[in-house]
Amino acid sequence: MSVLTDVLSAIHNNHVEIIDLTAPLESTTPVLRLPEPFANTINFQLEEISRYDERGPRWYWNNIHTGEHTGTHLDAPNHWLSGKDGFDVSQVPLRNLIGPVAVLDASDRVVDDPDFLLQIDDVRAWESEHGPLPDGGWLIFRTGWDTRAADQSEFLNVDNTGSHTPGVSPECARWLAEETPIIGFGVETVGTDAGKAPELDPPFPCHERILGAGKFGLTQLRNVDRLPATGAVLVVSPLPIVGGSGSPARVLALVERSG
Ligand code: MN
Q: Which residues of the chain have pLDDT under 50?
Protein backbone atom coordinates (compact mmCIF):
# COMPACT_ATOMS: atom_id res chain seq x y z
CA MET A 1 0.00 0.00 0.00
CA SER A 2 1.24 3.46 -0.82
CA VAL A 3 1.32 6.24 1.76
CA LEU A 4 -1.42 8.11 -0.11
CA THR A 5 -3.62 5.02 -0.32
CA ASP A 6 -3.23 4.64 3.44
CA VAL A 7 -4.24 8.27 3.99
CA LEU A 8 -7.31 7.95 1.76
CA SER A 9 -8.29 4.73 3.46
CA ALA A 10 -7.96 6.37 6.88
CA ILE A 11 -10.18 9.27 5.75
CA HIS A 12 -12.73 6.85 4.30
CA ASN A 13 -12.80 4.83 7.54
CA ASN A 14 -13.03 7.98 9.70
CA HIS A 15 -9.72 7.23 11.35
CA VAL A 16 -8.70 10.60 9.99
CA GLU A 17 -11.32 13.32 10.35
CA ILE A 18 -11.32 16.41 8.13
CA ILE A 19 -12.26 19.54 10.08
CA ASP A 20 -13.10 22.78 8.30
CA LEU A 21 -11.48 25.75 10.05
CA THR A 22 -12.85 28.24 7.50
CA ALA A 23 -15.43 30.98 8.09
CA PRO A 24 -18.20 31.02 5.46
CA LEU A 25 -17.75 33.87 2.98
CA GLU A 26 -20.79 36.11 2.66
CA SER A 27 -21.64 39.79 2.82
CA THR A 28 -21.98 39.59 6.61
CA THR A 29 -18.55 37.98 7.16
CA PRO A 30 -16.79 40.32 9.63
CA VAL A 31 -13.90 42.38 8.24
CA LEU A 32 -11.28 44.53 9.92
CA ARG A 33 -12.23 48.17 10.53
CA LEU A 34 -9.20 50.43 10.89
CA PRO A 35 -9.74 53.81 12.54
CA GLU A 36 -9.36 57.12 10.66
CA PRO A 37 -7.33 58.11 8.70
CA PHE A 38 -6.56 54.60 7.38
CA ALA A 39 -8.23 53.05 4.33
CA ASN A 40 -10.36 49.94 4.79
CA THR A 41 -11.19 46.76 2.90
CA ILE A 42 -14.61 46.04 1.40
CA ASN A 43 -17.04 43.42 2.61
CA PHE A 44 -17.37 40.25 0.58
CA GLN A 45 -20.06 40.57 -2.08
CA LEU A 46 -21.59 38.44 -4.83
CA GLU A 47 -22.56 40.09 -8.11
CA GLU A 48 -24.85 37.93 -10.19
CA ILE A 49 -23.90 37.45 -13.85
CA SER A 50 -26.81 35.19 -14.77
CA ARG A 51 -29.14 32.77 -13.04
CA TYR A 52 -30.90 30.47 -15.53
CA ASP A 53 -32.40 33.54 -17.18
CA GLU A 54 -32.10 35.53 -20.39
CA ARG A 55 -28.53 36.44 -19.41
CA GLY A 56 -27.64 32.75 -19.38
CA PRO A 57 -30.58 30.37 -19.63
CA ARG A 58 -28.89 27.21 -18.41
CA TRP A 59 -26.31 28.51 -15.99
CA TYR A 60 -25.78 30.43 -12.78
CA TRP A 61 -22.59 32.31 -11.91
CA ASN A 62 -21.31 35.35 -10.04
CA ASN A 63 -18.49 37.78 -9.93
CA ILE A 64 -17.05 38.10 -6.46
CA HIS A 65 -15.97 41.32 -4.78
CA THR A 66 -13.59 40.77 -1.91
CA GLY A 67 -10.52 42.07 -0.19
CA GLU A 68 -7.45 39.88 0.02
CA HIS A 69 -7.86 40.03 3.79
CA THR A 70 -11.52 39.04 4.06
CA GLY A 71 -12.79 36.17 6.20
CA THR A 72 -10.42 33.30 6.87
CA HIS A 73 -7.27 34.39 5.05
CA LEU A 74 -3.52 34.10 4.77
CA ASP A 75 -1.21 37.08 5.34
CA ALA A 76 1.82 36.87 3.05
CA PRO A 77 5.14 38.42 4.19
CA ASN A 78 4.79 41.32 1.72
CA HIS A 79 1.60 42.43 3.53
CA TRP A 80 3.82 44.33 5.97
CA LEU A 81 6.54 46.94 5.46
CA SER A 82 8.95 44.76 7.45
CA GLY A 83 8.40 41.90 4.97
CA LYS A 84 7.95 43.89 1.77
CA ASP A 85 10.75 42.08 -0.06
CA GLY A 86 9.39 38.67 0.98
CA PHE A 87 7.00 36.36 -0.82
CA ASP A 88 3.72 37.54 -2.24
CA VAL A 89 0.79 35.19 -1.72
CA SER A 90 1.32 33.44 -5.07
CA GLN A 91 4.90 32.58 -4.09
CA VAL A 92 4.26 30.81 -0.79
CA PRO A 93 6.13 27.49 -0.98
CA LEU A 94 3.65 24.63 -1.17
CA ARG A 95 5.47 22.74 1.58
CA ASN A 96 4.56 25.60 3.94
CA LEU A 97 0.87 25.16 3.15
CA ILE A 98 0.65 21.63 4.56
CA GLY A 99 2.22 21.02 7.93
CA PRO A 100 1.91 20.06 11.57
CA VAL A 101 -0.13 22.33 13.83
CA ALA A 102 0.19 23.06 17.53
CA VAL A 103 -2.83 24.52 19.35
CA LEU A 104 -2.36 26.69 22.42
CA ASP A 105 -5.64 27.23 24.25
CA ALA A 106 -5.98 30.46 26.23
CA SER A 107 -9.75 30.71 25.88
CA ASP A 108 -10.45 30.55 29.63
CA ARG A 109 -8.14 33.54 30.23
CA VAL A 110 -9.65 35.59 27.41
CA VAL A 111 -13.18 35.28 28.87
CA ASP A 112 -12.36 37.87 31.56
CA ASP A 113 -9.69 39.74 29.61
CA PRO A 114 -10.49 40.41 25.95
CA ASP A 115 -7.23 42.40 25.70
CA PHE A 116 -5.22 39.30 26.70
CA LEU A 117 -1.74 39.22 25.13
CA LEU A 118 0.07 35.93 24.64
CA GLN A 119 3.44 35.91 26.44
CA ILE A 120 6.63 33.90 25.89
CA ASP A 121 6.05 32.15 29.23
CA ASP A 122 2.63 30.96 28.04
CA VAL A 123 4.21 29.28 25.03
CA ARG A 124 7.04 27.87 27.16
CA ALA A 125 4.46 26.41 29.57
CA TRP A 126 2.66 24.84 26.61
CA GLU A 127 5.96 23.37 25.38
CA SER A 128 6.78 21.88 28.78
CA GLU A 129 3.45 20.00 28.61
CA HIS A 130 3.30 19.14 24.89
CA GLY A 131 6.86 19.30 23.58
CA PRO A 132 8.57 21.73 21.23
CA LEU A 133 6.69 23.79 18.65
CA PRO A 134 6.61 21.99 15.28
CA ASP A 135 9.51 22.65 12.92
CA GLY A 136 8.08 24.17 9.74
CA GLY A 137 4.59 23.97 11.22
CA TRP A 138 1.93 26.27 12.54
CA LEU A 139 0.94 27.57 15.94
CA ILE A 140 -2.75 28.33 16.39
CA PHE A 141 -3.64 30.59 19.31
CA ARG A 142 -7.07 29.51 20.51
CA THR A 143 -9.04 32.22 22.32
CA GLY A 144 -12.67 31.13 21.90
CA TRP A 145 -13.21 34.27 19.82
CA ASP A 146 -14.87 32.29 17.00
CA THR A 147 -18.05 32.15 19.09
CA ARG A 148 -18.47 35.86 18.26
CA ALA A 149 -17.95 35.44 14.51
CA ALA A 150 -21.64 35.66 13.57
CA ASP A 151 -21.80 39.32 14.56
CA GLN A 152 -19.35 41.96 13.34
CA SER A 153 -19.71 44.24 16.37
CA GLU A 154 -19.17 41.41 18.85
CA PHE A 155 -16.29 40.15 16.76
CA LEU A 156 -14.49 43.51 16.56
CA ASN A 157 -15.54 44.45 20.13
CA VAL A 158 -15.00 48.18 19.71
CA ASP A 159 -15.85 50.73 22.40
CA ASN A 160 -14.84 54.36 22.85
CA THR A 161 -11.32 53.25 23.81
CA GLY A 162 -10.82 51.18 20.67
CA SER A 163 -11.00 47.50 19.80
CA HIS A 164 -10.65 44.85 22.50
CA THR A 165 -9.57 41.51 21.06
CA PRO A 166 -6.74 39.18 22.14
CA GLY A 167 -3.32 39.04 20.51
CA VAL A 168 0.39 38.69 21.10
CA SER A 169 2.81 40.73 23.22
CA PRO A 170 5.67 42.46 21.37
CA GLU A 171 8.26 40.25 23.12
CA CYS A 172 6.39 37.06 22.28
CA ALA A 173 5.85 38.11 18.65
CA ARG A 174 9.58 38.71 18.22
CA TRP A 175 10.41 35.41 19.92
CA LEU A 176 7.93 33.39 17.84
CA ALA A 177 9.25 34.99 14.66
CA GLU A 178 12.96 34.76 15.35
CA GLU A 179 13.55 31.97 17.88
CA THR A 180 10.98 29.27 17.17
CA PRO A 181 10.83 26.92 14.16
CA ILE A 182 7.18 27.61 13.25
CA ILE A 183 6.41 28.87 9.74
CA GLY A 184 3.10 30.52 10.59
CA PHE A 185 0.82 31.80 13.33
CA GLY A 186 -2.97 31.41 13.25
CA VAL A 187 -5.79 33.05 15.22
CA GLU A 188 -9.59 33.10 15.53
CA THR A 189 -9.78 36.91 15.55
CA VAL A 190 -10.03 39.30 12.59
CA GLY A 191 -6.24 39.74 12.48
CA THR A 192 -3.19 38.15 14.08
CA ASP A 193 -2.63 41.21 16.27
CA ALA A 194 -4.61 42.34 19.29
CA GLY A 195 -7.28 45.03 19.05
CA LYS A 196 -4.98 47.38 20.97
CA ALA A 197 -1.99 46.56 18.73
CA PRO A 198 -1.81 50.10 17.26
CA GLU A 199 -0.70 51.29 20.74
CA LEU A 200 1.98 48.62 21.24
CA ASP A 201 5.70 49.04 20.54
CA PRO A 202 6.21 48.25 17.74
CA PRO A 203 2.63 48.79 16.55
CA PHE A 204 1.04 45.55 15.28
CA PRO A 205 3.98 43.49 16.64
CA CYS A 206 2.73 40.17 15.28
CA HIS A 207 2.54 41.53 11.72
CA GLU A 208 5.85 43.37 12.18
CA ARG A 209 7.80 40.36 13.45
CA ILE A 210 6.13 37.29 11.92
CA LEU A 211 5.80 38.73 8.40
CA GLY A 212 9.16 40.50 8.75
CA ALA A 213 10.74 37.09 9.36
CA GLY A 214 9.22 35.76 6.12
CA LYS A 215 6.60 33.76 8.03
CA PHE A 216 2.82 33.72 7.53
CA GLY A 217 -0.33 34.76 9.35
CA LEU A 218 -3.70 33.02 9.30
CA THR A 219 -6.84 34.62 10.64
CA GLN A 220 -10.50 34.12 11.47
CA LEU A 221 -10.22 30.38 12.06
CA ARG A 222 -13.11 28.45 13.57
CA ASN A 223 -13.62 24.96 15.02
CA VAL A 224 -10.19 25.19 16.60
CA ASP A 225 -11.73 23.66 19.75
CA ARG A 226 -11.99 20.41 17.79
CA LEU A 227 -8.21 20.16 17.32
CA PRO A 228 -5.82 18.35 19.65
CA ALA A 229 -2.92 20.32 21.14
CA THR A 230 -0.56 18.41 18.86
CA GLY A 231 -0.77 15.83 16.11
CA ALA A 232 -3.12 17.45 13.58
CA VAL A 233 -2.08 18.44 10.07
CA LEU A 234 -3.06 21.83 8.66
CA VAL A 235 -3.90 22.31 4.98
CA VAL A 236 -3.99 25.98 3.90
CA SER A 237 -5.08 26.90 0.37
CA PRO A 238 -4.87 30.61 -0.49
CA LEU A 239 -5.51 31.72 -4.06
CA PRO A 240 -2.31 32.37 -6.03
CA ILE A 241 -3.00 36.10 -6.52
CA VAL A 242 0.06 37.33 -8.39
CA GLY A 243 1.62 40.17 -6.43
CA GLY A 244 -1.07 39.80 -3.77
CA SER A 245 -0.51 40.47 -0.07
CA GLY A 246 -2.87 37.76 1.10
CA SER A 247 -5.88 35.74 0.08
CA PRO A 248 -9.05 34.26 1.43
CA ALA A 249 -8.15 30.63 2.10
CA ARG A 250 -9.91 27.35 2.72
CA VAL A 251 -8.21 25.94 5.78
CA LEU A 252 -8.67 22.27 6.70
CA ALA A 253 -7.23 20.19 9.49
CA LEU A 254 -6.66 16.44 9.38
CA VAL A 255 -7.11 14.88 12.82
CA GLU A 256 -6.39 11.27 13.65
CA ARG A 257 -9.07 9.58 15.75
CA SER A 258 -8.16 6.60 17.84
CA GLY A 259 -10.38 3.51 17.90
MN1 MN B 1 -4.65 40.00 7.01
A: none
Rg (CA), the chain: 19
CATH number, domain containing residue 217? 3.50.30.50
pLDDT 10s digits, 216-245: 999 999 999 999 999 999 999 999 999 999
On whether residue 61 sits in a domain, the answer given is no
- For the annotated catalytic residues, the residue numbers are 79
Range of the domain at 156: 17-24+68-256
Does residue 58 lie within any of the structural domains? Answer: no
What's the CA-to-centroid distance between 219 and ligand 1, angstroms? 7
State how far the alpha carbon of 189 is from the alpha carbons of 46, 139, 224, in Å: 24, 14, 12
Q: How far is the CA of 144 from the centre of ligand 1 (A)?
A: 19
With respect to residue 164, please indicate whether it lies within any of the assigned structural domains: yes
Q: Is 59 a member of any domain?
A: no
What's the CA-to-centroid distance between 100 and ligand 1, angstroms? 21
Residues 6+ apart with CB under 8 A from 137: 99, 100, 101, 102, 181, 182, 183, 234
Query: For residue 51, how far is its CA from the centre of ligand 1 (angstroms)?
Result: 32
Neighbours of ion ligand 1 (CB under 5 A): 69, 75
Q: How far is the CA of 67 from the centre of ligand 1 (A)?
A: 10
Taking the complete model, does pTM exceed 0.85, yes or no?
yes
Which residue type sits at 64?
A: I
**Structural domains in the chain (count):** 1
Please name the amino acid found at residue 234: L
